[in-house]
Amino acid sequence: MGTAFMARRNRQNTKGAAIARAIMEEYQPQTREEMQDAIKDIFGPMFEAMPQGEMDSHLGYGNNERGEKNTTNRRNGYSHKSVNTAYGKMDVSVPRDREGSFEPKAIPKRTKDVSGIEDKVLSMYARGMSQRDIADTVEDLYGFDISHETISTITDRVIGTAQEWQNRPLKKFYTFLFVDCIYVTIRKEMETKNCAVYVVLGYDVNGIKDVLGLWIGESEGKHYWMQIFDEIRARGVEDVRFISMDGVSGLEEGARSIFKDVVVQRCIVHLIRNSIKYIPSKEYKSYTAQLKKVYGAPSLKGAESEFERFKQAWVKYPGAVDVWVRNWQHVAQLYNYGSVVRKIMYTTNAIESVNSSLRKVTKKGNSPMKTLYARHSICG
Questions:
Q1: What contacts 177, CB < 8 A, 6 or more positions away?
Q2: Within its chain, how far is the Cα of 209 from the centroid?
Q3: Contact (CB, 8 A) for 142 and 117
Q4: What is the tally of helices (H) and strands (E) in the chain?
Q5: Rg of the chain on CA atoms, in Å
Q6: 89-131 pLDDT per residue, tens
Q7: How far is CA 138 from CA 321, 345, 367, in A?
Q8: Per-residue model confidence as pLDDT tens digits over 186-199
């Protein structure tokens, strides 16, 4: 089997080499640009030859074939149009028949774009490129213009699918939910504004993760989070074991109003960031090293002992110590669970990659829902 494959591949390579030599002899390109122009020049006649072959198949006889025909239908000249292709804009002639029954597939009727540009536009949009950047890239690479309206129309096609994704049924039980709220700049109705994007990432009992949804609002608060968790419950979620958060306003109350027995855990990394605001930068290293002894202790008793030493050592910075005093319950409750669970729930790092992706694709004011869904479905 391997020998046969290699022999077939060698035959294909021989054909390609022969064609390449013919092109080089005919066009004698000296640069990459001249080589591209040569390929484009050849592509046009090849492109037109495809509907010619389709017409032969449709009628059952060749263009100059003489003799009796099995049909009364005949060729009826050509329609001429300009189409966008992967090699730029080209003028092509598509054959017609008298009965008007010929439906070309290579260059369909009323089609002016056969470049496959829609998938390329969606891919560029999913990577956070603005409409202007996409239009410039298309012109540079493919040699034809694409309007901002066309780009918007193409990207708008994911909205319906994105809404289906946002409203899809969810699993009955999630072991962990990681929730966060970030602010991004969104362009809407000729103006840009900062909006809050609420992100919820779930882990099921098998450790499979999934973004449960995105919600866009203008502020945080208990009632908004209640709406989000109520929607999650309406989509099929009956219970959640742990929720890890960064201290966003109203989240804990909102979560417990919907899922009564959920354990809400403050992110230790965010608490560290909040507390070092009160510490001189030259002391960051020693401060965080002693903190690690607290939340990294092997037992609650050990953590309490380390916490007392920590408070005494940093008493001169009451603001920094107070952050931990007010949130001590979120350190203590970690020790209700084994080290494996503690390692997962003590930080919201699991959702940071989602947030980073969201910031990247919305940095030029693109729609968070369209861009995140496009990135999720196209880029993986």
A1: 200, 201, 202, 203, 212, 240, 242, 243, 244
A2: 15
A3: yes
A4: 15, 7
A5: 31
A6: 778 888 899 999 998 887 788 777 766 666 666 666 655 566 7
A7: 55, 45, 21
A8: 666 566 677 777 88
Whether the CB-CB separation of 165 and 375 falls below 8 Å is answered with: no
Distance CA 297, CA 103 (A): 74
> Using CA atoms, how far apart are residues 45 and 113, in angstroms rounded to an integer?
17
Residue 79, pLDDT above cutoff 70: yes
Residue 56: name the closest of 43, 74, 72 by CA: 74
Amino acid at 155: T
- Please say whether the beta carbons of 262 and 174 come within 8 A: no
Spacing of C-alpha 233 from chain mean position:
25
Rounded Cα gap, residues 130 and 120, in angstroms? 13
Phi, psi for residue 116 in degrees, rounded to 5 = 70, 25
- The one-letter code for the residue type at 113 is D
Whether the CB-CB separation of 61 and 69 falls below 8 Å is answered with yes
Query: What is the secondary structure of 74-141 as a DSSP string?
Result: -EEEEEEEEEEETTEEEEEEEEEETTS----SSS-TT--B-S-HHHHHHHHHHTT--HHHHHHHHHHH
Return the closest-CA partner of residue 378 out of 34, 17, 127: 127
pLDDT of amino acid 12? 52
**Minimum mean pLDDT range among 2-16, 106-120, 150-164:** 2-16
**Are 251 and 198 contacting, i.e. CB atoms less than 8 angstroms apart?**
no
* pLDDT for residue 290: 95
* Domain range summary for the chain, segments of one domain joined by +: 31-115, 172-367
Cβ count within 10 A of residue 107: 20
- Biggest CA-to-CA distance, the chain: 106
